[in-house]
Write a structure and sequence with these properties.
A hairpin with a 7-residue loop joins strand 1 and strand 2. The chain contains four helices and five strands; from the N terminus they run E-E-H-E-H-E-H-E-H. The chain has one domain: Transcription Regulator spoIIAA, CATH 3.30.750. It is globular, with a radius of gyration of 13 Å. The protein has a five-stranded mixed beta sheet with strand order 1-2-3-4-5, with helices on both faces. It is α/β, with parallel strands linked by helices and about 120 residues long.
């Protein structure tokens, strides 16, 4: 599931990805993201992946689809976690999901928010 983070404000929004992400999770997330884009024009997103356990195939396909659709409206995307493969995801996100993307270790949450808001 995605849980919106309390630090979210203005065009900077954060989500904690907890457990296994499903198609239903994306069906809730996508309208919220689209609404924020309508309001702000461009947005910046942080994903806290420290409790992430995996993603269903249909959810992964939805992720790719929405990424292609909104990649020009997402200025920055920060990924926070403690696994090497999450850092790899941040490199793949840049051409497919956002204009810029960066990985931060779990201990660097404040740094990730600061980068997102620069």
């Amino acid at each position: 599931m995605f849980q919106k983070m309390a630090e979210s404000s203005g065009k900077a929004v954060g989500y904690r990805a907890a457990g296994a992400i499903t198609e239903a999770d994306y069906e809730k997330l996508v309208p919220e993201i689209r609404s924020l884009i309508e309001k702000e024009g461009t947005i910046r997103i942080l994903f806290d992946m420290s409790a992430f356990k995996g993603v269903e195939v249909k959810a992964a396909l939805m992720d790719l689809k929405i990424g292609f659709e909104i990649r020009h409206e997402v200025e920055k995307m920060a990924f926070v976690g403690d696994k090497t493969w999450i850092e790899l995801i941040s490199h793949l996100a840049k051409p497919f999901h956002a204009q810029d993307a960066k990985f931060f270790h779990t201990t660097e949450m404040e740094k990730a928010w600061a980068w997102l808001r620069e």
